[in-house]
Amino acid sequence: MTPAAVGVAFNRIWDLAGLSRATAGKRPRPYDFRHHFAYTNIERWMAGGIDVDSMLPYLSRYMGHASLDSTYYYIHTSPDFMNAYAGMAREGQCLLPEVGFE
Q1: For 14-32, how does the pLDDT look when each residue is reduced to its tens digit (9 = 90+)?
Q2: What does DSSP assign to residue 28?
Q3: Average of per-residue pLDDT across 3-19
Q4: Which of 9, 21, 59, 62 has the most other CB atoms within 10 Å of its CB?
Q5: What is the rounded distance in angstroms from the CA atom of residue 22 to the CA atom of residue 26?
Q6: With left for phi above 0 and alpha for psi between -120 and 50, is residue 9 left, alpha or beta?
Q7: Could you tell me which residues come within 8 angstroms of residue 1 by beta carbon, excluding any fewer than 6 positions away?
Q8: In whole angstroms, what separates CA 47 from the centre of its chain?
């Protein structure tokens, strides 16, 4: 398949998926689907109260990553992760023993 044919197929799939197109700036690339897939799953798991760390090996395998380090990238760059993480950390503070410092 020629690069031009790949571009035509990609644009057709993008449009059929009903995804919006930016009017200015960078145009979508096929690699953007991978990022969107990873972020959507992580955010769906967080919203559903599913332990994201326990799901990462599945996401890593599905995406073909050689190690979990490559998959952790998506957690730390996810737009909504830090807000949700702050809430999870607040809820879990009661599990930690009190430690006094002198």
Answers
A1: 888 887 777 787 777 777 7
A2: P
A3: 81
A4: 59
A5: 7
A6: alpha
A7: 9
A8: 13
